[in-house]
């Protein structure tokens, strides 16, 4: 990507974050006279821009994923601190904040460990030498962290005591637990599978991966949907735009950086392998479920 388009994407991403943050700020507590969601959105971007400077100077992406996890922790931690100072720590707020922290710590550790084990992230082999494009990726990470956690941030920073734990909270947190369990199990199965490989890399088709091509992504989508649902008693008016949180996760994983990249990678590696084509034909894309071949068997 050339300099102009890369910087344009960074600018649009910044405008999107600040615009969405402002739109959901009605009814939120304030910090330095500004709505808390707006301060948090700007903070997420600023963290990425500060991290970009040493990353570009060193031409490294080693701490990119780690910084993403730390930004999630900073966002919900900052929101929780603001809420505790101004309106008090209420369970319905703090449970969702805690769930995001658990997810961020687990995922950040997993991704950082994977990059350290491999030595580099192939996604950045060319990007990290291109200033505007590398800057764009850090800006996009800021947008990702804020928009993904948006529903939880709105719940935490809402004025007043906030809702009591009710049916929506229980349903949402239950979905989070199921999604988190699926994601953790799938990632561990993939790590163990790769550790056993001694020859050329092969696609994983065991455990949850025998029932879905991307079970970890399904878990990711489900847990963020759960966190959005858990805040249903808080959203008012335009704040329902926080549905962008789970929708944004689905969009990224199915249309941008998840499935499309892995699909292209798989095609390059095993596209001519009949066994791989058979795996794709019989295995569901996202939801772990008995394969089409198995379900039709007598």
Provide an overview of this structure.
Mean pLDDT is 89; it is low at 294-298. This protein has a domain at 1-92 and 119-162. The chain has 298 residues and is mainly alpha-helical. Helix 8 runs antiparallel to helix 9 (244-256). It is built from twelve helices and two strands, in the order H-E-E-H-H-H-H-H-H-H-H-H-H-H. The protein is globular, with a radius of gyration of 20 Å. The chain has a two-stranded antiparallel sheet with strand order 1-2.
Radius of gyration: 20 Å
Task: Classify the helix fraction into a percent range.
Answer: 55-70%
The structure class reads: mainly alpha
Count of runs of 4 or more consecutive helical residues:
12
Q: Order of strands across the widest beta sheet?
A: 1-2
Strand content: under 5%
Distance between the termini: 52 Å
Quick overview:
By secondary structure, the protein is mainly α. The protein is 68% helix and 1% strand. It has twelve helices and two strands, in the order H-E-E-H-H-H-H-H-H-H-H-H-H-H.
Topology summary:
Layout: H1 3-23, E1 30-31, E2 34-35, H2 36-58, H3 64-86, H4 91-118, H5 131-148, H6 150-156, H7 167-196, H8 215-230, H9 244-256, H10 259-270, H11 274-282, H12 292-295
Antiparallel strand pairs: 1-2
Helix pairs in contact: 1-2, 1-5, 2-3, 2-5, 3-4, 3-5, 4-6, 4-7, 7-8, 8-9
């Amino acid at each position: 990507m050339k300099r102009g388009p890369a910087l344009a994407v960074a600018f649009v991403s910044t405008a999107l974050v600040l615009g969405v943050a402002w739109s959901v700020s009605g009814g939120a507590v304030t910090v330095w006279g500004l709505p808390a969601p707006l301060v948090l959105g700007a903070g997420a971007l600023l963290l990425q821009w500060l991290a970009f400077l040493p990353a570009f100077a060193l031409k490294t992406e080693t701490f990119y994923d780690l910084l993403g996890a730390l930004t999630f922790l900073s966002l919900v931690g900052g929101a929780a601190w603001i809420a505790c100072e101004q309106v008090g720590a209420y369970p319905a707020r703090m449970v969702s904040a805690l769930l995001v922290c658990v997810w961020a710590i687990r995922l950040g550790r997993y991704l950082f460990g994977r990059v350290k084990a491999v030595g580099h992230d192939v996604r950045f082999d060319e990007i990290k030498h291109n200033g505007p494009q590398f800057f764009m990726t850090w800006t996009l990470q800021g947008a990702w962290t804020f928009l993904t956690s948006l529903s939880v941030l709105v719940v935490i920073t809402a004025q007043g005591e906030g809702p009591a734990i009710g049916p929506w909270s229980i349903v949402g947190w239950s979905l989070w637990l199921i999604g988190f369990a699926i994601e953790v199990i799938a990632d561990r199965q993939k790590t163990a599978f790769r550790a056993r490989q001694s020859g050329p890399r092969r696609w994983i088709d065991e455990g949850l991966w025998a029932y879905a091509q991307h079970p970890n992504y399904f878990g990711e989508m489900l847990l963020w949907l759960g966190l959005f649902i858990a805040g249903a008693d808080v959203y008012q008016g335009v704040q329902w735009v926080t549905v962008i949180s789970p929708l944004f996760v689905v969009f990224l994983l199915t249309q941008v950086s998840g499935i499309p990249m892995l699909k292209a990678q798989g095609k390059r590696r095993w596209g001519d392998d009949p066994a791989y084509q058979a795996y794709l034909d019989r295995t569901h894309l996202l939801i772990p479920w008995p394969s089409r071949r198995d379900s039709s068997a007598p």
